[in-house]
Inverse folding.
């Protein structure tokens, strides 16, 4: 969410920065044009006054204007030098400490000059600059708000798409973004005139989720069908193998058939769990005693420590299945000692072997994936069943490795009242 918020502000700030740069460029251009026009008008007035003064001077008459001076000492030096070369010119200077527009021309080896007050022109230019700055600030503020609004809409839609993508990656394949589709987009071979890239990404995500869901459903149906079809011939094969004469061949055949039968039963159980039809038969259970009985039935060489007992809501049969699979996995892939600890509603199962593979810790158990093949044979179904049964019982399940080595599985069971209030 922070990244999307950052995107929102980046878009808004970028829009505002571009607006400010455009406003600054336009402001400078307008200032230069208006200043040149206003100063040109004042310069023109000064030139007209200078022409009148020259005509009166030529005929020896007096104009009577105090702004006309012959060779004034306050005439700017550059303008004085220009007149000395026989040219006529004008420039901004000062007269009695006030800004004026001087215009001067040669007259009998002297400089005949006129001046026009320039203070009003400067104030007018300052007012224009203030108006330009205020307009630029207002435009930048409006554009910033508009950019923030548009960026917020984009970021919200992206945040919705990202949230749906996270739900899909977490296993919720029914999640969809559901942005509306335009009529043009529904017509085959027709391209929408108004492109909406965010909507395109959302629709592509929805299509991907739908396709993925269809493929996974097909895979689940195939697995369930194969397991179901194998169940009958396997039962017959086991019965036929029992009729074989005693000996090593019979033991090998029975061993392989039993392994295949267990694999088939596991696949059927996974199919039922993934179908979402499994329902737990909840009851209040003393967790410490339930764990002790489950561990005792699973076999020796496992130590149980009850730090603090607790009454939890669970299904004894499914809880036994979870603990049995965890202990079988610890015996097969870990090393003793194997320890089971009960602390309130939390159960931990730990061995001292090489630990869980990193991909199992990050992604959770997956069928027919056991990590490093060198850690022992397996199909990855035991922990998959553990995760499925834990989901049915609403048990918080986590896989990790102990700091000093060994696989560590934590189960946090729900504590509360039964639906009937008991």
């Amino acid at each position: 969410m922070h990244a999307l918020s950052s995107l929102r502000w980046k878009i808004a700030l970028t829009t505002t920065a571009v607006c400010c740069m455009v406003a600054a460029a336009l402001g400078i251009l307008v200032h230069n044009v208006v200043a040149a026009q206003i100063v040109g008008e004042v310069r023109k007035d000064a030139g007209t006054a200078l022409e009148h003064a020259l005509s009166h001077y030529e005929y020896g008459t007096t104009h009577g204007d105090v702004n006309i001076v012959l060779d004034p000492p306050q005439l700017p030096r550059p303008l004085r030098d220009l007149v000395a070369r026989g040219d006529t010119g004008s420039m901004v200077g000062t007269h009695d400490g006030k800004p004026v527009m001087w215009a001067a021309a040669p007259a009998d080896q002297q400089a005949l000059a006129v001046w026009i007050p320039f203070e009003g022109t400067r104030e007018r230019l300052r007012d224009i600059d203030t108006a330009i700055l205020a307009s630029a600030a207002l435009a930048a503020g409006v554009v910033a708000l508009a950019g923030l609004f548009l960026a917020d809409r984009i970021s919200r839609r992206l945040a919705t798409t990202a949230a749906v993508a996270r739900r899909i990656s977490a296993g919720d394949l029914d999640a969809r973004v559901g942005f509306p589709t335009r009529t043009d987009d529904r017509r085959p071979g027709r391209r929408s005139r108004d492109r909406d890239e965010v909507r395109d990404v959302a629709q592509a995500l929805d299509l991907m989720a739908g396709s993925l869901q269809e493929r996974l459903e097909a895979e689940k149906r195939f697995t369930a069908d194969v397991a179901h079809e194998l169940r009958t011939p396997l039962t017959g094969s086991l019965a036929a193998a029992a009729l074989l004469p005693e000996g090593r061949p019979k033991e090998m055949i029975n061993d392989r058939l039993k392994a295949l039968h267990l694999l088939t039963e596991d696949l059927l159980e996974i199919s039922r769990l993934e179908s979402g039809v499994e329902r737990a038969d909840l009851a209040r259970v003393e967790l410490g005693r339930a764990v002790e009985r489950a561990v005792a039935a699973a076999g020796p060489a496992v130590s149980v420590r009850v730090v603090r007992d607790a009454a939890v809501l669970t299904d004894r049969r499914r809880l036994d299945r979870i603990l049995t699979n965890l202990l079988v996995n610890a015996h097969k892939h870990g090393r003793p000692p194997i320890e089971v600890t009960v602390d309130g509603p939390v159960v931990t199962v730990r061995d001292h072997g090489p630990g869980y593979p990193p991909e199992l810790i990050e992604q959770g158990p997956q069928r027919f994936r056991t990590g490093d093949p060198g850690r022992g044979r397996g199909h990855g179904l035991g922990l998959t069943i553990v995760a499925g049964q834990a989901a049915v019982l609403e048990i918080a399940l986590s896989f990790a490795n102990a700091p000093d080595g060994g696989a560590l599985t934590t189960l946090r069971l729900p504590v509360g009242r039964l639906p009937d209030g008991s």
